[in-house]
Amino acid sequence: MQMLYNSDSFAVVMFDVPADASITGNDALSRGGYEIVDKFARKEIFIEGALAQRFKEGVEALIETEPSEEEVDEYLGRFSSLMHHPVVLH
């Protein structure tokens, strides 16, 4: 688990679970994804697979432009409509 981004509005955490060493060949898939938290809406989403890959590619393209915090938050805000899970503190 690695915190990638944290602003007043959003937080992004990457979860990277290495492939099982006992599985070889094409079956050895890395698992993981990204948790995006909208702090104001108090909702979150965990994305994995193809959506996580598109998210990563979008972030990488955004980083190339040296974005402001507002631009990063705007990009993350695109995922707010997908967030249905309330943030629960333990």
Detailed description of the structure:
With 90 residues, the chain is of the alpha+beta class. The protein has one domain (2-86). The chain contains 2 helices and 5 strands. The protein has helices at residues 49-64, 69-77; strands at 2-6, 10-17, 31-38, 43-47, 85-86. The protein has a 5-stranded antiparallel β-sheet. The longest helix has 16 residues, at 49-64. The chain is globular. It starts with a strand and ends with a strand. The mean pLDDT is 87.
Question: How do you describe this structure in short?
Answer:
The protein is an alpha+beta fold and 90 residues long. Helix content is 28%, strand content 31%.
**Count of DSSP H/I helices:** 2
Note poorly predicted spans.
none
Q: Looking at the structure, what is the overall shape?
A: globular
Structural class: alpha+beta
Amino-to-carboxy terminus distance: 17 Å
Q: Give average pLDDT, whole number.
A: 87
Strand adjacency order, main sheet: 1-2-3-4-5
| Main sheet properties | 5 strands, antiparallel
Q: Name the helicity range.
A: 25-40%
Radius of gyration: 15 Å
Indicate how many domains the architecture comprises. 1
The quaternary structure here is single chain
Order of helices and strands: EEEEHHE
How much strand?
Answer: 25-35%
Number of strands: 5
Supply the key terms.
90 residues; alpha+beta; five-stranded antiparallel beta sheet; 2 helices; globular
Topology:
Blueprint: E1 2-6, E2 10-17, E3 31-38, E4 43-47, H1 49-64, H2 69-77, E5 85-86
